Amino acid sequence: MQKMPSPIVVMGVSGSGKSTVGAALAQRLRVPFADADDFHPAANIAKMAAGHPLNDDDRRPWLETIGQWLAEHCGDGGVMSCSALKYQYRVQLRSHCPGTRFLHLFGTPEVIGARQASRPGHFMPASLLASQFDTLEPLRADEGGVVIDVAQSIDSIVDEYISRTGGDHRGERSDGENI
Q1: How far apart are CA 86 and CA 153, in angstroms?
Q2: 5 contact partners, CB below 8 Å, separation of at least 6
Q3: pTM, whole model, 2 decimals?
Q4: pLDDT digits (tens, 9 = 90+) for 129-174
Q5: Sheet containing 33-35: which strands, arranged edge to edge?
Q6: Which pLDDT tens digit goes with each residue over 71-85?
Q7: Keywords, A to Z (predicted)?
Q8: Are 32 and 73 in contact (CB under 8 A)?
Q9: Cα(118)–Cα(138) distance, rounded to whole angstroms?
Protein backbone atom coordinates (compact mmCIF):
# COMPACT_ATOMS: atom_id res chain seq x y z
CA MET A 1 0.00 0.00 0.00
CA GLN A 2 1.41 3.38 -1.04
CA LYS A 3 1.56 6.04 1.67
CA MET A 4 0.00 9.42 0.99
CA PRO A 5 2.36 12.45 0.93
CA SER A 6 2.92 14.02 4.32
CA PRO A 7 3.62 17.70 4.87
CA ILE A 8 7.11 18.80 5.84
CA VAL A 9 7.81 21.45 8.46
CA VAL A 10 11.09 23.29 7.91
CA MET A 11 12.04 24.30 11.45
CA GLY A 12 14.75 26.23 13.27
CA VAL A 13 15.53 29.49 14.97
CA SER A 14 14.79 32.84 13.39
CA GLY A 15 17.32 33.55 10.66
CA SER A 16 18.11 29.90 9.89
CA GLY A 17 16.61 30.16 6.40
CA LYS A 18 13.32 28.35 6.98
CA SER A 19 11.32 30.43 4.51
CA THR A 20 13.93 30.37 1.76
CA VAL A 21 14.70 26.66 2.09
CA GLY A 22 11.02 25.80 2.55
CA ALA A 23 10.03 27.59 -0.64
CA ALA A 24 12.87 25.92 -2.57
CA LEU A 25 11.96 22.48 -1.19
CA ALA A 26 8.28 22.95 -2.02
CA GLN A 27 9.17 24.00 -5.54
CA ARG A 28 11.41 20.96 -5.97
CA LEU A 29 8.71 18.61 -4.64
CA ARG A 30 5.96 20.47 -6.54
CA VAL A 31 3.80 20.93 -3.44
CA PRO A 32 2.27 24.05 -1.82
CA PHE A 33 4.38 26.23 0.49
CA ALA A 34 3.31 28.39 3.43
CA ASP A 35 5.29 30.53 5.85
CA ALA A 36 4.19 30.37 9.49
CA ASP A 37 5.17 34.02 9.93
CA ASP A 38 2.13 34.85 7.80
CA PHE A 39 -0.11 33.13 10.37
CA HIS A 40 0.99 35.20 13.40
CA PRO A 41 -1.74 37.35 14.91
CA ALA A 42 -0.94 41.06 15.07
CA ALA A 43 -0.39 40.87 18.85
CA ASN A 44 2.43 38.32 18.42
CA ILE A 45 4.15 40.44 15.77
CA ALA A 46 3.87 43.56 17.93
CA LYS A 47 5.28 41.71 20.94
CA MET A 48 8.29 40.42 18.99
CA ALA A 49 8.86 43.76 17.27
CA ALA A 50 8.98 45.37 20.71
CA GLY A 51 11.80 42.96 21.65
CA HIS A 52 9.80 40.56 23.80
CA PRO A 53 9.95 36.80 23.16
CA LEU A 54 6.71 34.89 22.72
CA ASN A 55 5.65 32.48 25.44
CA ASP A 56 3.73 29.21 25.15
CA ASP A 57 0.38 30.97 25.59
CA ASP A 58 1.23 33.32 22.70
CA ARG A 59 2.25 30.43 20.48
CA ARG A 60 -0.58 27.98 21.19
CA PRO A 61 -3.31 29.54 18.96
CA TRP A 62 -0.72 30.30 16.27
CA LEU A 63 0.40 26.67 16.27
CA GLU A 64 -3.24 25.54 16.05
CA THR A 65 -3.69 27.62 12.90
CA ILE A 66 -0.52 26.12 11.41
CA GLY A 67 -1.73 22.66 12.41
CA GLN A 68 -4.96 23.27 10.53
CA TRP A 69 -2.94 24.10 7.41
CA LEU A 70 -0.98 20.86 7.85
CA ALA A 71 -4.25 18.92 8.24
CA GLU A 72 -5.52 20.43 4.98
CA HIS A 73 -2.35 19.18 3.25
CA CYS A 74 -2.17 15.80 4.95
CA GLY A 75 -2.41 13.42 2.02
CA ASP A 76 -1.52 16.00 -0.64
CA GLY A 77 1.82 17.13 0.75
CA GLY A 78 3.07 20.62 1.40
CA VAL A 79 5.92 22.49 3.05
CA MET A 80 5.47 24.85 5.99
CA SER A 81 8.26 26.98 7.44
CA CYS A 82 7.75 27.20 11.20
CA SER A 83 10.19 27.63 14.08
CA ALA A 84 8.66 24.62 15.96
CA LEU A 85 11.33 25.13 18.60
CA LYS A 86 9.97 22.86 21.34
CA TYR A 87 9.09 19.19 21.28
CA GLN A 88 5.60 20.03 22.64
CA TYR A 89 5.03 22.41 19.69
CA ARG A 90 5.94 19.66 17.23
CA VAL A 91 3.61 17.24 19.02
CA GLN A 92 0.84 19.85 18.72
CA LEU A 93 1.53 20.24 14.98
CA ARG A 94 1.63 16.47 14.40
CA SER A 95 -1.69 16.05 16.23
CA HIS A 96 -3.28 17.58 13.11
CA CYS A 97 -1.38 15.33 10.69
CA PRO A 98 0.56 12.50 12.38
CA GLY A 99 2.76 11.84 9.35
CA THR A 100 4.23 15.35 9.34
CA ARG A 101 8.01 15.28 8.82
CA PHE A 102 10.56 17.81 10.05
CA LEU A 103 13.63 19.37 8.48
CA HIS A 104 15.58 21.11 11.23
CA LEU A 105 17.89 23.79 9.85
CA PHE A 106 20.70 23.99 12.36
CA GLY A 107 23.41 26.62 12.60
CA THR A 108 25.67 28.11 15.23
CA PRO A 109 24.63 31.34 16.93
CA GLU A 110 27.44 33.08 15.02
CA VAL A 111 26.22 31.90 11.61
CA ILE A 112 22.57 32.65 12.39
CA GLY A 113 23.46 36.04 13.91
CA ALA A 114 25.30 37.04 10.73
CA ARG A 115 22.27 36.01 8.66
CA GLN A 116 19.91 38.01 10.86
CA ALA A 117 22.13 41.08 10.56
CA SER A 118 21.72 40.91 6.77
CA ARG A 119 17.91 41.13 6.85
CA PRO A 120 16.95 44.53 8.26
CA GLY A 121 13.30 45.32 8.79
CA HIS A 122 12.17 41.82 9.84
CA PHE A 123 9.76 41.92 12.78
CA MET A 124 11.95 39.49 14.76
CA PRO A 125 14.85 41.57 16.10
CA ALA A 126 18.34 40.04 16.38
CA SER A 127 18.18 40.76 20.12
CA LEU A 128 15.79 37.79 20.50
CA LEU A 129 18.18 35.27 18.92
CA ALA A 130 19.49 34.11 22.31
CA SER A 131 15.92 33.41 23.48
CA GLN A 132 15.36 31.31 20.34
CA PHE A 133 18.43 29.16 21.07
CA ASP A 134 17.40 28.90 24.74
CA THR A 135 13.95 27.63 23.70
CA LEU A 136 15.17 25.25 20.96
CA GLU A 137 14.79 21.56 21.76
CA PRO A 138 16.55 19.38 19.16
CA LEU A 139 14.58 16.83 17.18
CA ARG A 140 14.19 13.51 18.95
CA ALA A 141 14.87 10.26 17.16
CA ASP A 142 11.14 9.37 17.18
CA GLU A 143 10.01 12.63 15.53
CA GLY A 144 10.52 11.72 11.90
CA GLY A 145 12.97 14.27 10.67
CA VAL A 146 16.48 15.21 9.70
CA VAL A 147 18.89 17.91 10.85
CA ILE A 148 20.89 19.78 8.23
CA ASP A 149 23.59 22.40 8.77
CA VAL A 150 22.66 25.78 7.26
CA ALA A 151 26.26 26.67 6.43
CA GLN A 152 25.80 25.61 2.80
CA SER A 153 23.83 26.77 -0.23
CA ILE A 154 20.05 26.50 -0.43
CA ASP A 155 20.31 24.03 -3.30
CA SER A 156 22.76 21.91 -1.28
CA ILE A 157 20.37 21.84 1.69
CA VAL A 158 17.44 20.80 -0.53
CA ASP A 159 19.61 18.19 -2.28
CA GLU A 160 20.78 16.80 1.07
CA TYR A 161 17.22 16.59 2.40
CA ILE A 162 16.02 14.77 -0.69
CA SER A 163 19.06 12.48 -0.66
CA ARG A 164 18.66 11.63 3.04
CA THR A 165 14.95 10.93 2.67
CA GLY A 166 15.28 9.09 -0.62
CA GLY A 167 13.33 11.84 -2.35
CA ASP A 168 10.21 10.56 -0.64
CA HIS A 169 8.06 12.96 1.41
CA ARG A 170 5.64 10.22 2.42
CA GLY A 171 7.43 9.47 5.69
CA GLU A 172 9.47 6.55 4.42
CA ARG A 173 12.81 6.41 2.68
CA SER A 174 13.14 4.62 -0.63
CA ASP A 175 14.92 1.76 1.18
CA GLY A 176 11.85 1.24 3.41
CA GLU A 177 13.25 2.72 6.61
CA ASN A 178 11.32 5.38 8.46
CA ILE A 179 12.84 8.85 8.50
Answers
A1: 26
A2: 31, 75, 76, 77, 169, 170
A3: 0.84
A4: 788 888 899 999 889 899 999 999 999 999 999 999 876 554 433 3
A5: 33-35, 79-81, 8-11, 101-106, 145-149
A6: 999 988 999 999 999
A7: ATP-binding, Kinase, Nucleotide-binding, Transferase
A8: yes
A9: 25
